[in-house]
Design brief:
Length: about 290
């Protein structure tokens, strides 16, 4: 029958083209998925890279913004109004290792020094307040100690970021006072932050390399002598917290820093570099004296 033949023919056509149609449908699905991947993959990559960029931005700006040390800075300024420091002195500025150096003024005599250490500050903090606690005194020299807190456990900063902040400090001071000498102290090792010491050493190397390229800037290596040739510094260089220096550590620092300052700024007829050099032999680090640039 014609109708029956038509139905059979239609069925044959369906049976004949079903595999082809299935293949077409599968190819279409695969093409769709590939198209989605072509769209999704770049989006995922973009989001990933954006996330890295945001993290670096936060680390270098938001998370690294100076803390609010305004109250500490105002105390310095209030004290200066009551008892103005002599112009042309030597400013020691930086973190708590400077702030807690109670014997600094006595140990640095006959040099006129000003202690402007504040809290657990970082290089970014020192840079933010440099004009109020450093350049305002028009010092002949400034001795800076930072970087310790910058690279403490949990900090987002890298050695490169710390070195960049040290460069910025030099720029700030020399943009106003190009004749002022800047002494950059190395970051010290400590028991509390021993796990961070490799990063601190890396930052020290970057800072030291930078200093070599600068005029009127000198690197003071207070870290290496603290080891006394051993794998770790002696425990008696630190107070109970394993971080801050003891009187013995400060005496060692004095024997490193004071000769360099006396060489350029001291009354040479009264006090020579040799007057403080024996301290090195007392501490058993005869060969650790840093060279003078």
């Amino acid at each position: 029958m014609p109708g029956e033949k038509w139905r059979l023919g239609g069925l044959a056509n369906v049976l004949m083209f079903h595999p082809a149609r299935s293949r077409l449908r599968l190819m279409s699905l695969l093409n769709c998925r590939l198209s989605r991947k072509r769209i999704v993959c770049p989006i995922v990559l973009f989001v990933f890279l954006l996330g890295i960029g945001v993290r670096e931005y936060l680390a270098s700006t938001v998370l690294a913004r100076p803390q609010d040390w305004e109250s500490s800075i105002r105390k310095f300024e209030d004290g200066d109004r009551v008892n103005p420091p002599k112009p042309g002195g030597i400013v020691f500025a930086g973190a708590s290792s400077i702030r807690l150096w109670d014997t600094l003024l006595e140990e640095m005599k006959p040099l006129d020094v000003i202690n402007r250490g504040f809290g657990g500050s970082q290089y970014s903090d020192l840079n933010a307040y440099a004009k109020r606690i450093v350049t305002v005194y028009h010092p002949r020299a400034v001795v800076a100690y930072e970087g310790d807190n910058d690279l403490a456990a949990g900090s987002p900063k890298t050695p490169e970021m710390v070195a960049n902040d040290a460069r910025e400090f030099v720029r700030i001071v020399h943009s106003e006072l190009p004749e002022t000498w800047i002494y950059v102290m190395s970051i010290k090792p400590s028991y509390l932050r021993w796990n961070e010491w490799p990063k601190m050493k890396a930052a020290n190397k970057l800072i030291q390399d930078f200093v070599k390229t600068q005029e009127r800037v000198q690197y003071l290596d207070v870290a290496s002598p603290m080891f006394y040739g051993q794998d770790k510094p002696p425990r008696d260089l630190f107070v109970a917290d394993g971080l801050h220096p003891t009187a013995k550590c400060y005496a060692l620092w004095t024997s490193i820093i004071k000769p360099e300052l006396l060489h350029r700024f001291g009354p040479r007829n009264n006090v020579s570099r040799d007057a403080v050099a024996p301290l090195w032999f007392e501490f058993g680090v005869e060969n650790a004296m840093p060279s003078v640039r």
